[in-house]
Design goal:
Blueprint: H1 37-62, H2 87-92, H3 103-124, H4 136-159, H5 162-168, H6 182-189, H7 193-196, H8 216-225, H9 239-250
Helix pairs in contact: 3-4, 6-9, 8-9
Domain Cytochrome b/b6 C-terminal region profile: 27-154
Membrane topology: Multi-pass membrane protein
Pfam families: Cytochrom_B_C, Cytochrome_CBB3
Length: 255
Amino acid sequence: MHRGKGMKFVGDSRIPAERKPNIPKDYSEYPGKTEAFWPNFLLKEWMVGAVFLVGYLCLTVAHPSPLERVADPTDAGYIPLPDWYFLFLYQLLKYTYASGPYNVIGAFIIPGLAFGALLLAPFIDRGPERRPIKRPFATGFMLLALASVVFLTWESVVNHDWEAAKAQGQIVEGPEIDQNSEGFQIYQENGCINCHGETLTGGAAAPSLVGTGLSPDEIKTIAVEGVGTMPPDQFKGTDEELGKLAEFISTLEAE
């Protein structure tokens, strides 16, 4: 720039000197193999996504999620069930070499290898062909993954005890329990709360103690000798405390 000569904009690498219309590239030399991302491909993706979204919304309206009772952290017998899209992983953890001491294999190693292979599939099979029959690796692995998910989900649904699951989550009107009373304190201190819950309504591993219709003497006998899946000698307190606990439980009535 020289004095008196004015200024001229020459542009740089970030700002073009001339604005060009956003025209998609010409892919006519690759008929049927590729297309412009915007708007052709993206519009198709949005249309497919909209169809699935409407379908899911219709399902949620027709079949709303079931409402269960308030979560009780002291109920050790409650068996949680994941949502349907995680049922295949839930079923995987039931097998011998994917649970217990091998839990790390079922929870991290097997899913990690499977999803990692799915992520790497586009980089391994980089051929220009779009037809599935011409891409054996990607097609075969996707079919194997889909078959595994469908099979494990089916096994989880068939083998799950839905009646027990419904019973353990059922909303039950419980009595007003005075948690400051001596009977409840004895109930809590002796570990009864771990199986029968804070509201004494029980769970999958223990029955409800509300409205049993048992006399205090019958309750004391059960606490000492056990019944059903409850082993004997569960109560560790004194005879006086056992009497107060039995009296407390016998007075509980459902509202």
